[in-house]
Amino acid sequence: MALAACGDDAKKPGAVGGAGSSSAPAPGSSAVPESGVVAADGPLKLSVTPAAGKKGVPLSTEIGVDVSGGKVTTVALKDAKGKAVAGELREDGSSWVPAKALTASKTYEASVTAVDSAGVSKTETTTFTTMAKPAKKTGTGLYLFDDHTYGVAMPIVVEFNPGIKKKDRAAVQKRLFVKSEPAQPGAWSWTSTGTQVYYRPPKFWEPGTKLTVRAAVGGLPTGGGRYGDQDRGASAKIGRSLVMKVDNKTKKMTVVESGKTVRTLAVSLGAPKHPSSSGTMVVMEKMAATVFDTMDEAPPGEGYVTDIEYAQRLTWSGQYIHSAPWSVGAQGRRNVSHGCVNVSPSNAKWLFDKTLIGDPVTVKGTGDKLAYGNGWTPWDLSWKEFVKGSAIAVPAELANQDGQS
Fold first, then answer.
1. What ranges do the domains of the chain cover?
2. Over the chain, what is the mean pLDDT?
3. CATH no. for 141-240+384-399
4. Which segments show compositional bias classed as Low complexity (predicted)?
């Protein structure tokens, strides 16, 4: 992989506010649905956590529930002023997750009610106090924005600074939630550094899917005495299907929309000294006009400053699809770029006007393999390889699904 092979090695597009399991606790009532906790037969037993009188509780604390001989019907959490806190029970019934991080240095009262098959109920109450504001925090980000429409390969990307160490990833991953409508299975997978974790389904999202994401990491212990800086969340939509396929052998890009080829574009890829990366990438950023400046990182005599139109970022290292009027004569014939996918001005504008952030781009046949993590790369792995990056065991039924990469 060539550093800043074509474009600038600019800062990443801003990540905002974040994503865990396939179902997301969200703001709502404290009532527990009929599908909630159903326990084995026997006398009704119920216990809750945190323990009564416990102090210094993390702001991410959940109301733990252990029930047998019945089912939980209600969980209620109130602050010291009696104000109700919204939340939702986890699918496995193990705990109730507040809809947002709790307030530092405050006392809360939780009340949990369960009922047995004869209608006899039991209620347990606990009072606890949260910790003071954490002194050391882990910065977080979510590359998903409210009310935006994304391409079918848009991964959910949650970012951590500093990265999360392996021993701490499972606890963090349990606080990342995704809901998809229509429902589609998916899994999380960490990059080696722990600075990012991706969520994707086995195959591209269905067009029209609605996504609701929550990274419930505000006040969550993240290791090394650090705590997540804040909860992050977004609701977004997946648009139509548009897939770009680039073949170095033919020097062509095939654009497939809703299963039909709509245009074939001549391209010029990276010259032998600056090969383009082969692999499946995702459009991460779009700029109608920008400046590529490689003077700081290029070898002496090879840097340049160039005005660019219709740039679509594919990698963090600086590979883009963009307008290249200077290489039109080479497009479709030979590779002359610094690693980018060069197209003509008219084709660049046409493509720029059609694409969405999250549209997939697959390049094949070049002399360089895409490095995992150089961009949003979860689709460059097979599904079976992707799920190996989860910090929590992925059910066999999900791990063995047919995937797309």
1. 45-129, 141-240+384-399, 242-374
2. 91
3. 2.60.40.3710
4. 21-36
